[in-house]
């Protein structure tokens, strides 16, 4: 059996949430009902994890990030400080007749993030976008369209400006549709509008 979760007294964690072994939840974080957080995750100060959010193992959600339901995060996802994952196509406080909207007046849509992907500080991912595995979204970007695996995205709205490898470093062209990581030396090849690591 692993280490039990570490939950600080000032955190607000629902008794109906499932928290994996070895996970740390810091000051003023809130984890809502039916959220599932995997093993060895870190939920930073003031972060919000919405009702029913699904999070894999070894994820990091940095300070004051807002992960709204029904987001799904695979293993090893990094969510930077003050990131927002939205959940509404047509946000409004009131209906057209002026009455206050309730939960039954709108349909939740969620952001899905693949294994190892990273979302930089103060980025916004507009649901229902899908972020591919090992992709990197630069700080301050606004993602409005699906992101391919290993893509490097930046800007408002976000556009692809390159590729990254498993280490998160921008890949360099190596000729003939191949790319090389300057940090690890790993090579990748273009494959169906994306890239994949070349088996060594």
- How would you describe the shape? globular
Main sheet? 9 strands, mixed
Secondary structural class? mainly beta
N-to-C series of helices and strands? EEEEEEEEEEEEEEEEEEEEEEEEEE
Percent strand equals 25-35%
* Radius of gyration of CA atoms, rounded to a whole number: 18 Å
Report helical residue fraction: under 10%
Spans of at least 5 consecutive residues with low confidence = none
By DSSP, the count of extended strands is: 26
Termini separation = 35 Å
Number of helices: 0
Order of strands side by side in the largest beta sheet? 1-4-7-10-13-16-19-21-22
Mean pLDDT: 95
The gist of it:
The protein has strands at 6-7, 12-13, 18-19, 24-25, 30-31, 36-37, 42-43, 48-49, 54-55, 60-61, 66-67, 72-73, 78-79, 84-85, 112-113, 118-119, 124-125, 130-131, 136-137, 142-143, 151-154, 159-163, 172-175, 178-180, 187-191, 194-197. With 200 residues, it is an all-beta fold. The strands form four sheets. It has a nine-stranded mixed β-sheet with strand order 1-4-7-10-13-16-19-21-22, with no helix packed on it.
Keywords:
0% helix; nine-stranded mixed β-sheet; seven-stranded parallel β-sheet; mainly beta; 200 residues
